[in-house]
């Protein structure tokens, strides 16, 4: 007998997937609905459109690095080792590259207007009208993690588990960790690795600058057989950079350790805060 062509009714408790009509290949999502983001270079570079402290972050890195190359690095190059300024330059380059990638990369913006109100009628989705909760991971019998799959009325999509809508970016972000005001961008599935390596390269850069600054001051103290105050007067910029970078590295180091803790739990910031 020929197979029936009538559509089958979804069984109770069954989730029927919606068919998604892909837009023409010449239309990009950032041209159709970009939220509040700012896109450049045909969507290859993006950033949220809000004010942020991004310029302060660049200044906090660039100004001390310039002072280091102007005052401390020449003395280290001529009196200690030429390799140390080269290592510092590599750490600085690594920090800047990861910062730029974290700032300009797509954090995981999900397409909009896929599941519009007209496609969510009776029988389209045999689940609750606003959300459904699924067990995504089990640590032990007494500690289950249930993550909601919610419908975003702004983006008009059923966003995946671990995705969330960012008010600052006005978009749903896949595996959203948080919106970082320092980067003026969300941290999500596609740029989390750049954010993680940025904070750790920044920490290493700060500790290395602090070490070289103290080496400059202590070496002058030993060579001139003078007091520490006199040595600081001979190299005040190096001493100031050493104190500044040592104190400034505390925050990114704490943030890096916190994210290593989250990785060990298999969670992100939003999940950890909501589960506590």
Rg over CA atoms, rounded to whole Å, is: 26 Å
> Strand pairing plus helix content: what structural class?
alpha+beta
Largest sheet properties: 3 strands, antiparallel
Tell me the number of helical segments per DSSP (H or I, 4 or more residues long). Answer: 8
N- and C-termini, Cα separation: 58 Å
Number of strands: 9
The average pLDDT score comes to: 78
Strand fraction = 15-25%
**Global shape:** elongated
Poorly predicted ranges: 1-24, 120-129
Protein name: DHHC palmitoyltransferase-domain-containing protein
Organism: Lipomyces orientalis
Gist of the model:
With 276 residues, the chain is an alpha+beta fold. It contains 8 helices and 9 strands. Helices cover 46% and strands 15% of the residues.
Write a structural description.
The chain is α+β, with helices and mostly antiparallel strands. It has 2 domains: 51-109 and 177-276, no CATH class; 111-162, no CATH class. 46% of the residues lie in helices and 15% in strands. The protein has 8 helices and 9 strands. It has helices at residues 29-32, 54-79, 83-104, 192-224, 228-234, 236-248, 250-265, 269-275, and strands at residues 37-40, 45-48, 131-140, 143-152, 157-158, 164-166, 171-173, 178-180, 185-187. The strands form 4 sheets. The protein has a 3-stranded antiparallel beta sheet, with no helix packed on it. Strands 1-2 form a two-stranded antiparallel sheet. A two-stranded antiparallel ribbon has the order 6-7. Strand 6 (164-166) and strand 7 (171-173) form a beta hairpin. Helix 4 (192-224) packs across helix 5. The longest helix has 33 residues, at 192-224. The chain is elongated. The chain starts with 28 loop residues before the first helix and ends with a helix.
């Amino acid at each position: 007998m020929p197979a029936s062509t009538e559509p089958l009714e979804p069984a109770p408790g069954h989730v029927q997937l919606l068919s998604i009509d892909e837009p023409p290949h010449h239309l990009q999502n950032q041209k159709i609905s970009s939220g509040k983001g700012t896109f450049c270079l045909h969507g290859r570079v993006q950033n949220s459109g809000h004010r942020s402290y991004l310029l302060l972050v660049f200044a906090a890195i660039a100004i001390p690095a310039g002072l280091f190359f102007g005052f401390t690095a020449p003395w280290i190059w001529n009196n200690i080792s030429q390799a140390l300024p080269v290592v510092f330059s590599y750490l600085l380059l690594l920090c800047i590259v990861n910062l730029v990638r974290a700032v300009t990369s797509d954090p995981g913006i999900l397409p909009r207007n896929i599941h519009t109100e007209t496609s969510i009628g009776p029988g389209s989705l045999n689940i609750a009208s606003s959300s459904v909760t699924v067990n995504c991971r089990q640590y032990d019998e007494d500690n289950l993690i249930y993550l909601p799959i919610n419908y975003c009325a702004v983006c008009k999509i059923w966003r995946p588990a671990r995705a969330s809508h960012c008010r600052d970016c006005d978009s749903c972000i896949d595996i959203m960790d948080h919106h970082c005001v320092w980067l003026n961008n969300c941290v999500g599935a596609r740029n989390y690795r750049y954010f993680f390596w940025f904070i750790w390269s920044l920490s290493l850069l700060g500790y290395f600058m602090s070490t070289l600054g103290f080496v400059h001051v202590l070496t002058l103290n030993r060579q001139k057989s003078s007091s520490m105050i006199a040595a600081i007067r001979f190299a005040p910029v190096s001493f100031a950079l050493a104190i500044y970078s040592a104190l400034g590295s505390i925050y990114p180091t704490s943030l890096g350790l916190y994210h290593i803790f989250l990785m060990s739990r298999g969670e992100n910031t939003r999940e950890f805060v909501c589960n506590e």
